C-alpha cells in the first residue's frame, strides 16, 4: 500500500513533538525507582520521598511561571511604548523567546505530574491507609535490620553470579554486621546465585540447537538488538527459527517517506 505524503509533513511532526513530555513511565517508576529498594518498608519510604520531591518541583515551577508572566507583561508594555524600530524588534525577539519558555514550563509540569501520579497510584494499589503510611515514617529497628540483610544479600548475589565470589567492598560491609545477619546475607546470595545458574543453564539448553545451526552455516552472522521489540528476541535467533519453520515469514517492510526539514521563517 502506497504511503500518502499528504498525511504527514514536517510541521505536523514538529507540532506533535511539542506534545511529548519526557520523563519516567509508570513502569520505570515502579521497577527502577520504587523497586530499587529491596524491602517493602524502604519501597514505601522511597515512594513518599519521590512524591515530596516532585510536589516541591511543581510548586517551584508554578512560582517560576508566575514570575515569568510578570516579566512578560513588563516587556509587552515596553514593546507597545517603544517607537524606535530596532529597539522594538529586539523587544519582539524577547517576547518570542519568552513564549518558547512558556512551552517549556508546560512540558515540565506535565512531566512532573505524570511521574507523581505513578507514585500516588503505587501507594493506592498497595492498599495502604493514612495511618500505615504515618507509621512507615517512624524508625523501626527490625525493618532496618531486614533491609540491610536484604540489600547486602542482593549485592553479594550479584557478585557471586558474575564473579563467582563476593567482592571485597561488599564483603567488608558484611563483615561489620552481626554473625547471624552475615549468615542470612550469604544464604540469600547463594540462593539467588544457584537459582540463577540453573535458569541460565535451562535457557542455554533451549538455545543449543540454534547455536549449532549457526555454527554449521556458511554465512554466520552477528546478533543485533535492532527490531527486538517485534518478538523480544535477538534478530539472528528469529532468523534461525524462521529457517527451521518455527516463525512466520518476516513482515513486509513499510514504504519509507522522505521529508526535508526547512526551518520556519518568522
Q: Can you describe this structure?
A:
The chain has three domains: 25-136; 141-216, no CATH class; 219-250, no CATH class. 71% of the residues lie in helices and 0% in strands. It has helices at residues 10-17, 26-33, 40-81, 85-126, 130-136, 141-163, 168-175, 179-216, 228-231, 235-243. The radius of gyration is 28 Å and the shape is flat.
In short:
The chain is built from 10 helices and no strands. By secondary structure, the protein is mainly α.
What topology does this entry show?
Elements: H1 10-17, H2 26-33, H3 40-81, H4 85-126, H5 130-136, H6 141-163, H7 168-175, H8 179-216, H9 228-231, H10 235-243
Helix pairs in contact: 3-4, 6-8
Helix percentage range: over 70%
For the largest beta-sheet, the strand count, sense and barrel status come to:
none
Overall form: flat
Continuous helix count:
10
The tally of beta strands, per DSSP, is 0
Beginning-to-end CA distance, first to last residue: 37 Å
What structural class do the secondary elements suggest?
mainly alpha
Pattern of helices and strands: HHHHHHHHHH
Total of domains:
3
Q: What is the CA-atom radius of gyration, in angstroms?
A: 28 Å
Strand content: under 5%
Detail the poorly predicted runs: 247-261
